[in-house]
Amino acid sequence: MSASYPGAVNEDTRTQPTSPEDPVSTEDEAVIALAHSLLDAARTGDAAALLSLVDQGAPVDLRDGAGNSPLMLAAYHGHAELVRELAARGADVDLVNDRGQSPLAGVAFKGFTDVAEVLLEAGADPALGTPSALDTAVYFERAEMVALIEARRA
Predict the structure, then answer these.
(1) Tens-place pLDDT, residues 111-120
(2) Domains, the chain, ranges and CATH?
(3) What are the start and end residues of each ANK repeat (predicted)?
(4) What does each C-alpha distance from 110 to 12, 91, 115, 142, 150 come to in angstroms?
């Protein structure tokens, strides 16, 4: 499967280096580093680090430069229990990224039915996004994912 498919999540959450004309304060650098650690923890499934930051007040729906939230990154990388915990802490299960992709569509692209079940239980909309989760599952011939989505829609 090609990562250029519209269902692929952009994995580059690193900010571009600043120019000398665009100074960044030490406080800004600390905030940026904290955001990167939060997003990296979501991607790697480091629930202890990520949930601790969220529980201390970090925004659960923080977004990277491509509009991906921690829940999107955790879902896309197959971390079902982390997705469950983020949703329980108020993460928006339908927050689309800048390309119009929903977490459920990303999961359909990757084929993680366990994560899809968590998202659907949390109320994710399978018709949301471009392409939708259902369209993505059909396109990639993920019969189990299609059946799961269809069962929730019935």
Answers:
(1) 999 999 999 9
(2) 26-153 (1.25.40.20)
(3) 66-98, 99-131
(4) 17, 21, 10, 10, 18
